[in-house]
Amino acid sequence: QVQLVESGGGLVQPGGSLRLSCVASGSIFSILPMAWYRQAPGKEREWVATIISGGNAAYADSVKGRFTISRDNAKNTMWLQMNSLKPEDTAVYYCNTGQKWGQGTQVTVSS
């Protein structure tokens, strides 16, 4: 059974960068599509990016060109590199695969 643990959130100024990590347990990580979602206060959870086993990725328009999703199947780890952060990126960020969700990590972009 896959379990997901996120880390790397924090407080950053507008224009800054953060890198989120998601470590997955389980031997089938390498074949699973993985995704990042986020949920801002008072809003619904929204999709951010997805990466499939071979490394192809897709992004929401709101983060395209600023965020990069990557994975290392040997380390059962996925990352989200977030650059040029904006206040509207403030949210709890969740790692996801299928019906499995991590506990979330808070990202706050504020001066």
Verbal overview:
By secondary structure, the protein is mostly beta strands. 0% of the residues lie in helices and 50% in strands. The protein has no helices and 11 strands. The protein has strands at 4-7, 10-12, 18-24, 34-39, 46-51, 57-59, 67-72, 77-82, 91-97, 100-101, 105-109. Strands 2, 4, 5, 6, 9, 10 and 11 form a 7-stranded mixed sheet that branches. Strands 1-3-8-7 form a 4-stranded antiparallel sheet, with no helix packed on it. It is globular and about 40 Å long. The model has no long low-confidence stretch (mean pLDDT 95).
How would you summarize what this structure contains?
This protein has about 110 residues and is mainly beta.
Q: Which outline best applies?
A: globular
**Assembly classification:** single chain
Tell me the number of helical segments per DSSP (H or I, 4 or more residues long).
Answer: 0
Amino-to-carboxy terminus distance: 40 Å
Runs in which pLDDT lies below 50 for 5 or more consecutive residues are none
The succession of helices and strands, N to C, reads EEEEEEEEEEE
Number of strands: 11
Label the structural class.
mainly beta
Largest sheet: 7 strands, mixed
